[in-house]
Structures are given as structure tokens and as C-alpha cells.
Recover the amino acids of this structure.
């Protein structure tokens, strides 16, 4: 899986890492129980400060997506915990949806876009599990 | 005249390497300056390269010409060495001039304006790393083993003092007690084998410098580069051990030192290493830049980040934020160190120690 950091983006690097890991979990690219690269390794691969990667992993832990343990490193949780701080996605969705609404885009059009994104995650996930199933049979 | 020929040959071999180097590096890193892919074919870069190459050839002709003309007027050894050093200084100057010129063009025209600079990493690199090619270490170990076996069998038959140094005609001109002296070359083989294997191991783990414009293609090049050079380095270790074994056979008086051709046999492994390295550098390029790999047609619209500020003169890497200590060179083949990392200084110190120790050992034993 490729992680891409856009250095011209307004979004801080540690949040870009966080976003892509969450997307990878949603699409099944990062299966429950799978390991994230060691902090040091990822920092070396990007050539960025260790603390930046550390901060990204801590954010993911605080949001209940991964477990951080000494020696083992970061692993994706089978069932994400939902701490209070991380359950505010409806709030953030509100801010996000305010944008197309303010641009006077029709509601059903917005819902269609939302549905498409959800379908993409779902189809990627089912494709992946099919492939794994075929590997197990073969 | 021999001195002049040797100095001129050294200067010539270096000329070949520095002349060809701009064609071996990544197209987006001409003369150690990072440029966006769309500028890699800018005519100014080709112009600077032509200027660089004619300067090199000019420097070579002037230095060798001076050696030939002045060879009878002054001490020929000082003349040859001095002019060889001067030639190397001119080569370096040609590089820095080219580097500065391209930096100037890039800064004046703001080549990175509007480019989307990015960093990419593959989270699966750990599983996709090139494995250490243990089988390729075997020739080096065999040469080392042969040295030790021959040494053990020969040692009791050696006289109390053995020759340790020979002049150019193969006449011994340095002797030492066999106690320490007979172990010198096998010891060096052990040290160099460990050094070569260690460097290969580190190089295989060094960062894949991925071009975000086509991550898959650039990662395939990086893999191929490491695959080839790791094997080559271990073969070079074997050749070095063979050269040291031949040297040991001389000091153990198994190989006659004064025969014509002995000198050539001793030199052969080094020549093979030199030609092998040059050939591999040409077909592979730095970081696999010259390897053909499948290109994905998809445009990511991203460019490699402009990291010139971390590269002093395009040669010395200093980046305190980067935890890596071994990184690929920009202008040259292979790896260099991040001078801002502590590990790098430990590493450098260890290498200097090995070199100084192996240079001093013969003197200490005398």
C-alpha cells in the first residue's frame, strides 16, 4: 500500500498519514490485526522526523483504530473502539456537507456522491475478501 | 616514464568515471540539482553537460601534457603526483561549476512553482525488501578459507623472517618476523569480508528513494539496483580476497615474486573489479536509473520534493529530521551518509579505523 504525503497541502503531514490509514482500513487494504510499518521505518522511508510519524500513530490510537504496543508496534484493531473524542464524525460530516449545500448543490446529488464513496469502500472490501478466499481454496 | 604512465592512467580512469556520470544519475537529478520531471529535458541541462565534459577532457589533456613535457626538468614522482592531484581538483571544479549553473537557472526561473511536491512510501517495503544474497558470499568465504588452509600448512615451513614488501621488479625490500607477519594478509581478508558483507547488508536496507510520479516503476528500479549491486559487492569481496591470497602466496614464498607477469597477476583482480563496477554502473545507473521497467501510464501529477537544501553542493547530505543514515548519492554510484545523524558518524569512524589500522599494521609489525 502506498502512502502519499502532499507537501503543498494545508493538512499537516501527521493527519495525512492518519487519513490514509483510516481509508485503508475502510477499504480493507489494512485488515484487522495487520501491522503498520514500525515508526522508525516509515520515518526513514519518507525521510521525515520520527515525531511526525509517532504523532500520526498516537492519533490513530486515540481514535481507537490501532493498538500501540512496545516491540509489537501498531496493529489494526479488529473492532475499532469508539472513544468519545473520535465519535464526532457526524459533526465533521456536517461541516463537510455544509460546503456543497452552500454551493446550492441538490440534496439527492450530494447523497449520490456519498453513496458512491461508500460503494467504493464496500466493493474494494468484497473484492479483497474474494481474492483471499480464492487463495485459500487454491 | 613509468611514473608518468601510471599517473596518466589513474587520471584517465577517473576521467572515464566522471565523464560518464551525468548519464548514469537520475534524469531529475542533473549534477546533484533536483529538477521537476518536465524540466529534465531542458536544453540548458544538456548545454551545461557539454561544457562539463569538454572541461574534463581539457583538464586531462593539460595535466598529462604537462607531465610528458616536464618529465625531465623536475622530480618526476612529485610532478606526476602533483599534476594528478591538480587534475582531480579540476574535475571537481568542473562539477561544482555545472552544479552552480543549474542551481542558478532553477532558482531564477522558479522551476518548482506550481508543482505538487510529495513524498511516497510503501507500507509493505519490509516484506518486499531484497534479501541478503547469502549464496553470493560463498566465493569470498572460499577464497578466505583457502588462504587460511594454505597458511596453516605453510606456516611451519616458513623461515623466521619473511618478506613483507616488494619493489616494482619483485625484489623483496621489507622483512618481518613470521610470527605476526604471516597472519597480516589473512587478517585483512577477514576484516574486508566483514566490511563488504556489512556494507551490503546496510545498503539493502537503505531507503528506496521513490519518485511519486510513478512509484511502481521507480520502486522496481530501486529493487533491481539493490539486487545487482548486493551481488556485485560480494563478488568484489571475493576478488579482493583473491588479490590478498596472491599477496600472501608471495610473502609465504609459494609464488615467485621476481617472475615477469607476477605483477600483472596481482593486479588482475583489481582490474576486474574496476571494469565490473564500471560496466554495472553503465547498465544499471544510479538507483537503477538506466534499467528498463514497466511504466504505468497513469499520471499522478506529483513530483519528488525539492530537497536541495539538505544537499551541500549536491554531494553532502545533512538532514537532522531524517532518521536514515545511509542514503543514495545524487551524483555518483552507490550510497552516502546523512552527516546529521549520530549513527553516520559512528559508521564513518569505524570505516576510518579499519582503513587506518590496515595501513598502519605493516609498519607496526616491522
Amino acid at each position: 500500500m502506498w502512502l502519499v504525503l502532499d507537501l503543498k497541502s494545508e493538512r499537516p503531514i501527521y493527519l495525512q498519514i492518519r487519513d490514509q490509514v483510516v481509508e485503508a482500513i475502510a477499504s480493507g487494504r489494512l485488515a484487522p490485526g495487520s501491522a503498520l510499518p514500525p515508526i522508525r521505518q516509515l520515518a526513514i522511508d519518507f525521510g521525515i522526523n520520527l515525531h511526525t510519524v509517532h504523532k500520526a500513530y498516537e492519533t490513530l490510537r486515540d481514535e481507537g483504530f490501532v493498538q500501540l504496543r512496545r516491540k509489537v508496534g501498531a496493529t489494526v484493531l479488529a473492532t475499532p473502539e469508539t472513544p468519545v473524542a473520535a465519535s464526532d464524525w457526524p459533526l465533521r460530516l456536517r461541516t463537510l456537507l455544509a460546503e456543497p449545500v452552500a454551493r446550492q448543490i441538490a440534496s439527492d446529488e450530494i447523497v449520490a456522491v456519498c453513496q458512491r464513496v461508500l460503494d467504493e469502500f464496500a466493493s474494494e472490501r468484497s473484492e479483497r475478501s474474494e481474492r483471499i478466499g480464492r487463495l485459500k481454496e487454491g | 616514464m613509468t611514473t608518468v604512465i601510471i599517473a596518466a592512467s589513474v587520471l584517465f580512469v577517473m576521467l572515464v568515471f566522471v565523464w560518464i556520470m551525468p548519464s548514469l544519475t537520475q534524469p531529475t537529478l542533473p549534477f546533484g540539482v533536483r529538477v521537476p520531471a518536465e524540466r529534465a529535458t531542458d536544453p540548458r541541462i544538456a548545454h551545461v553537460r557539454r561544457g562539463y565534459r569538454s572541461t574534463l577532457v581539457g583538464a586531462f589533456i593539460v595535466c598529462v601534457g604537462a607531465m610528458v613535457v616536464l618529465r625531465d626538468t623536475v622530480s618526476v614522482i612529485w610532478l606526476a603526483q602533483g599534476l594528478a592531484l591538480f587534475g582531480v581538483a579540476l574535475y571537481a571544479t568542473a562539477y561544482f561549476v555545472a552544479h552552480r549553473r543549474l542551481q542558478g537557472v532553477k532558482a531564477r526561473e522558479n522551476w518548482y512553482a506550481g508543482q505538487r511536491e510529495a513524498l511516497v512510501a510503501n507500507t509493505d517495503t519490509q516484506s518486499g525488501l531484497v534479501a541478503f544474497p547469502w549464496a553470493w558470499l560463498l566465493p569470498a568465504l572460499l577464497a578466505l578459507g583457502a588462504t587460511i588452509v594454505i597458511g596453516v600448512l605453510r606456516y611451519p615451513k616458513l623461515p623466521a623472517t619473511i618478506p613483507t614488501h616488494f619493489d616494482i621488479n619483485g625484489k623483496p625490500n621489507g622483512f618481518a618476523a613470521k610470527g605476526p607477519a604471516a597472519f597480516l594478509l589473512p587478517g585483512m581478508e577477514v576484516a574486508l569480508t566483514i566490511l563488504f558483507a556489512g556494507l551490503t547488508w546496510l545498503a539493502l536496507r537503505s531507503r528506496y528513494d521513490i519518485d511519486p510520479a510513478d512509484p511502481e516503476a521507480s520502486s522496481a528500479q530501486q529493487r533491481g539496483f539493490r539486487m545487482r549491486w548486493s551481488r556485485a559487492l560480494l563478488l568484489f569481496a571475493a576478488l579482493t580476497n583473491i588479490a590478498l591470497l596472491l599477496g600472501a602466496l608471495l610473502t609465504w614464498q609459494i609464488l615467485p615474486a621476481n617472475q615477469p607477469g607476477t605483477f600483472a597477476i596481482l593486479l588482475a583482480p583489481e582490474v576486474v573489479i574496476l571494469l565490473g563496477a564500471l560496466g554495472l554502473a553503465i547498465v544499471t545507473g544510479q538507483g537503477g536509473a538506466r534499467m528498463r521497467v514497466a511504466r504505468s501510464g497513469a499520471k499522478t501529477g506529483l513530483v519528488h520534493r525539492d530537497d536541495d537544501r539538505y544537499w551541500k553542493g549536491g554531494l553532502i547530505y545533512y538532514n537532522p529530521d531524517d532518521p536514515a543514515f545511509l542514503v543514495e548519492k545524487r551524483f555518483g554510484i552507490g550510497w552516502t551518509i546523512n552527516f546529521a545523524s549520530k549513527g553516520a558518524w559512528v559508521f564513518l569512524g569505524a570505516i576510518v579505523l579499519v582503513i587506518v589500522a590496515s595501513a598502519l599494521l605493516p609498519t607496526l609489525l616491522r
User: Anything to note?
Assistant: Strands of chain B lie at 117-122, 161-166, 172-177, 303-304, 311-312, 316-317, 326-328, 335-337. Chain B touches chain A at residues 116-126, 207-208, 212, 215, 300, 302, 305, 307, 319, 321-324, 327 (CB under 8 Å). Chain B is about 60% helix and 10% strand. The longest strand of chain B covers residues 117-122.
